[in-house]
């Protein structure tokens, strides 16, 4: 790494400002690790792009995603977290557990004893203008978060993997009817998940079907136009009020390639029941290491774990330094 302006050494750096990052910050700050957080280009993370959050414990009447993230930020700052708007552009981790070098915005570099990675994952979208227009107003990438708002209504879900299958069956329990749009003539999901979908009477699977456009008005989504890939012509128009996209997520880990162990999809691999990565002093929490649950509360839980593990790591390092300190001769 080329050194830019060197801006000093810190005990704990947190990369990312979603529920995992802020929870790690609250715990690290209370443990006197004086954490510095770099927020990334979307401060607050994925939740700032949602509307109502009804399933985060402690908010009996619900809260909006942006307000929840603002509350978490205030709580982290109350204990002294230094929250900075900026982007980590390069990292150089020490394999031997020494200090880690981090470059910010391509202009400055500092070193850190511990790094907590909470960079999250980004939902993949179809890329339709109408999808963007109604995002948060009937369009969602999380059935578990937003399905409740469509109780008793007709909805559609796009995707054919395990996530789409799981979310379709979840929605089927709440909604009157679920249309599942599968672009090929077969699922990608496991047999067990497919069986569950096929057995659910209020799910209608439309194979060889793509989405042409999501239709709506000032009230939100009112329907969608589909394309029949087999007939190569416009297909059915479906009257739905909710449109769920479940075509996979991309973990935000490009920065760490070649340095941290990842699975084939790019999620960081952590040790069992721990947030430890393969590099001593580097911890990962939240969606960047979890493709299964992906909830704000599970991200927050692993953020807490990461801070506790960082604290223990630093304490052990300091103990070791004390043990190896040469005894000062006194006169
Ligand atoms: P996957 O990558 O497995 O599946 C994505 C699905 O979306 C595929 O069916 C793909 O279609 C479809 N798709 C992609 N792009 C488009 C598009 N533009 N238009 C329409 N459809 C599209 O992602 P998942 O999130 O489902 O799963 C990720 C990983 O997590 C997997 O390993 C999965 O097994 C795992 N998982 C496990 C669960 C469990 O064990 N309970 C629950 C959820 C996930 P195509 O098939 O044609 O490529």
From TrEMBL:
GO terms of molecular function: thioredoxin-disulfide reductase (NADPH) activity
Catalysed conversion reaction: [thioredoxin]-dithiol + NADP(+) = [thioredoxin]-disulfide + NADPH + H(+)
Names of required cofactors: FAD
Alphabetical list of Gene3D superfamilies matching this protein: FAD/NAD(P)-binding domain (3.50.50.60)
Lineage: superkingdom: Bacteria
Pfam family, one: Pyr_redox_2
Keywords: FAD, Flavoprotein, Oxidoreductase, Redox-active center
EC number of this enzyme: 1.8.1.9
FAD/NAD(P)-binding domain segment(s): 11-303
TM helices/strands, residue ranges: none
Family statement: Belongs to the class-II pyridine nucleotide-disulfide oxidoreductase family.
Quaternary organization: Homodimer.
Cross-referenced NCBIfam families: TRX_reduct
Protein name: Thioredoxin reductase
């Amino acid at each position: 790494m080329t050194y830019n302006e060197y801006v000093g050494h810190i005990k704990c750096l947190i990369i990312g400002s979603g529920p995992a990052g802020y929870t790690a910050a609250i715990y690290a700050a209370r443990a006197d690790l004086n954490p510095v957080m770099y927020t990334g280009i979307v401060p607050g993370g994925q939740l700032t792009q949602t509307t109502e959050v009804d399933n985060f414990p402690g908010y009996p009447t619900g809260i909006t995603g942006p307000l929840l993230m603002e509350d978490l930020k205030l709580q982290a700052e109350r204990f002294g977290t230094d929250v900075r708007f900026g982007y980590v552009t390069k990292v150089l981790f020490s394999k031997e557990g020494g200090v880690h070098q981090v470059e910010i915005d391509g202009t400055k570099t500092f070193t850190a004893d511990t790094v907590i990675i909470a960079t999250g994952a980004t939902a993949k979208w179809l890329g339709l203008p109408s999808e963007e227009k109604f995002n948060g107003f009937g369009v969602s990438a999380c059935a578990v978060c937003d399905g409740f708002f469509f109780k008793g209504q007709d909805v559609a879900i796009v995707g054919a993997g395990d996530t789409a299958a799981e979310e379709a069956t979840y929605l089927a329990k709440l909604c009157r009817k679920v249309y599942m749009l599968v672009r090929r003539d077969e699922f990608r999901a496991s047999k067990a998940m497919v069986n569950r979908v096929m057995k659910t009477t209020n799910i209608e699977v439309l194979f060889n079907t793509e989405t042409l456009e999501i239709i709506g008005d000032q009230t939100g989504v009112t329907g969608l136009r589909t394309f029949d890939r087999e007939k190569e012509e416009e297909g059915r128009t479906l009257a739905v009020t909710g449109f769920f996209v479940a075509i996979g997520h991309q973990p935000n880990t490009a920065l760490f390639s070649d340095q941290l162990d990842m699975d084939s999809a790019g999620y960081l691999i952590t040790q069992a029941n721990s947030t430890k990565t393969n590099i001593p002093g580097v911890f990962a929490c939240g969606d960047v290491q979890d493709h299964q649950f992906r909830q704000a509360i599970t991200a927050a839980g692993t953020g807490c774990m990461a801070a506790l593990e960082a604290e223990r790591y630093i304490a052990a390092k300091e103990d070791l330094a004390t043990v190896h300190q040469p005894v000062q001769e006194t006169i």
